[in-house]
């Protein structure tokens, strides 16, 4: 356990009669200590964002955080503050921000629906009052009613009718306004939910949405007895770009490559950021041959592109990537399909990078 008190600093006296900490407190304390120990082990200063990532890793919630950290450590042997900042941005900061936004939108939506319900109830009350007036006026007339009594009854009915028409018009206007507000709120809520499924840096689908969509497409392929391929992509020597030109340039490279992938998919195809410099393509109704054709087209586009820094026009050089293609087989689920695509990807990288390795 890390010693948090400074040397020579006296420990604060415990208040007399203080209650003993319960199991929830002890569990949280243990996670906090583990998070600080991890920060110390990997020499990542425990500022709030870093601490939150390590605490999430220690707690195992969300699972994607632990998976991402383990993958980076397995690949690079360590990780730094930048890696943790990216994980926080991808899995913690955006989801918390979007959750608060969705809560606010849901609150306003509920309030609008309550307002509509009140308007409808007021209209029902007005209708009941109008019906009562008609009934009362009708009952007051007899077969021997004088012309003056009939005129009076007609005037009452006309007055009540005018009042009812006015109330109905106001109700219609209020309902139209409320319906427009509800549509606006629902559109905002849908956009908010969509943003929660997008990677904030590249604007591609994030890993959470990728995993959901992969399961759906596997089910669709099974139901339709159709082919399907999954492609995992890794930008070659991306760490050199970051180390040489800095992380902002690295981020621009990620955005450029993500845009190229997005421009080459169509229909139900999905391009997603899998994590870091890794991307994924879900290609429904596509066999390995068609998938290879698509990837070669992307490789040719990269081959004809020279990246330069916007200031100083310093050339970065050619950008290349490695690709692993796995086709859906009988008995596959999302985990086995991803694992096989990952195996193919490493085959491509071990063969010299800037290559395709594919199921046949």
Beta-strand content: 5-15%
SSE order: HHHHHHEHHEEHEEEHE
Query: Could you say how many structural domains there are in total?
Result: 3
CATH topology of the largest domain: Alpha-Beta Plaits
What are its keywords?
alpha+beta; two-stranded antiparallel sheet; 5-stranded mixed sheet; 10 helices; disordered N terminus; 64% helix; Alpha-Beta Plaits; 360 residues; 3 domains; elongated; single chain
Give a nutshell description of this structure:
Helices cover 64% and strands 10% of the residues. It has 360 residues and is α+β, with helices and mostly antiparallel strands.
What does this entry look like structurally?
The protein is an alpha+beta fold and 360 residues long. The protein has three domains: 56 residues; 99 residues; 152 residues, Reverse transcriptase/Diguanylate cyclase domain (Alpha-Beta Plaits, 2-Layer Sandwich), CATH 3.30.70.270. It is built from ten helices and seven strands. The strands form two sheets. The chain has a five-stranded mixed beta sheet with strand order 2-3-1-6-7, sandwiched between helices. A two-stranded antiparallel sheet has the order 4-5. Helix 1 crosses helix 2 and helix 7 packs across helix 8.
């Amino acid at each position: 356990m890390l010693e948090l008190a400074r040397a020579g600093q006296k420990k604060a006296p415990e208040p007399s009669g203080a209650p003993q900490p319960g199991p929830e407190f002890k569990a949280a304390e243990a996670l906090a200590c583990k998070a600080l120990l991890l920060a110390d082990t990997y020499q990542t200063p425990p500022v709030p964002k870093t601490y939150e990532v390590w605490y999430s890793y220690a707690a195992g919630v969300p699972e994607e955080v632990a998976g991402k950290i383990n993958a980076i450590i397995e690949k690079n042997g360590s990780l730094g503050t930048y890696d943790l900042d990216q994980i926080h941005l991808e899995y913690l900061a955006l989801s918390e921000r979007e959750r608060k936004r969705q809560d606010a939108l849901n609150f306003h939506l509920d309030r609008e629906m309550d307002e509509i319900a009140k308007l409808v109830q007021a209209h029902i009350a007005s209708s009941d009052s109008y019906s009562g007036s008609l009934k009362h006026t009708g009952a007051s007339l007899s077969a021997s009613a004088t012309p003056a009594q009939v005129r009076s009854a007609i005037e009452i009915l006309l007055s009540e009718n005018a009042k009812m028409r006015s109330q109905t018009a106001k109700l219609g206007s209020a309902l139209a306004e409320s319906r427009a507000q509800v549509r606006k709120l629902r559109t905002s809520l849908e956009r908010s939910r969509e943003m929660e499924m997008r990677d904030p840096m590249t604007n591609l689908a994030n890993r959470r949405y990728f995993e959901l969509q992969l399961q759906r497409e596997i089910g669709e392929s099974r139901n339709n007895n159709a082919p399907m391929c999954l492609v995992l992509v890794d930008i070659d020597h991306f760490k050199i770009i970051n180390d040489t030109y800095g992380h902002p340039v690295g981020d621009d490279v990620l955005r450029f490559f993500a845009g190229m992938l997005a421009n080459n998919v169509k229909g139900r195809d999905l391009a997603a950021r899998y994590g870091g410099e890794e991307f994924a393509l879900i290609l429904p109704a596509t066999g390995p041959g068609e998938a290879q054709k698509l990837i070669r087209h992307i490789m040719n586009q990269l081959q004809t592109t020279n990246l330069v820094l916007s200031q100083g026009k310093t050339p970065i050089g050619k950008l290349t990537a490695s690709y692993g293609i796995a086709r859906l087989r009988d008995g596959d689920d999302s985990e086995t399909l991803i694992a096989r695509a990952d195996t193919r990807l490493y085959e491509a990288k071990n063969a010299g990078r800037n290559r395709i390795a594919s199921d046949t």
